[in-house]
Amino acid sequence: KNEVEQSPQNLTAQEGEFITINCSYSVGISALHWLQQHPGGGIVSLFMLSSGKKKHGRLIATINIQEKHSSLHITASHPRDSAVYICAVSPDSNYQLIWGAGTKLIIKP
Amino acid sequence: GAGVSQSPSNKVTEKGKDVELRCDPISGHTALYWYRQRLGQGLEFLIYFQGNSAPDKSGLPSDRFSAERTGESVSTLTIQRTQQEDSAVYLCASSLGGTGQGYTFGSGTRLTVV
Asked: Average of pLDDT values for B88-114?
């Protein structure tokens, strides 16, 4: 079993829909990262979380340390949100990362 | 190979020395990415290869950093005249294509510049 699990693996939605991507992990962590990669492009770091909730524009990330779970939400989704979203955790023991497999999101106009 | 392999896993070097970090991607993966994470900070994209060419080098922090890829396989990230701020975990990932499908990540190289 992977130490970081993301769901769903693939998600297709219509423009304007509220999107949720989930990430569960099984190790103790000091931080959790959400990243985004557009087709053919580099990876952009969206959030680094250690507790609570962060918001940036239409993106919201939450983390529940007790449940070892994080969610990434996109409100009023737009085709330009189409990308792969990746969850990664920094274990307590060091700052090397454990990665989820990514969620491929497609938003149709 | 079965996964993305990075070597060395740990490297301690003296300030001013050059270092080479290696990444062996999954066989057949045409896309390869380098990025780094400094302690307590988020991830930084460094460079992206599609085949042997690098369409996106935008993340390389200075001209002391360079990377190459040969045979659509192994990639080497070179840091010249290392500085203490170069201390970080350097991560490599590969995927089947530039669309980001089927990401596989290496476990990283922890570089410490003393």
From this structure: 77
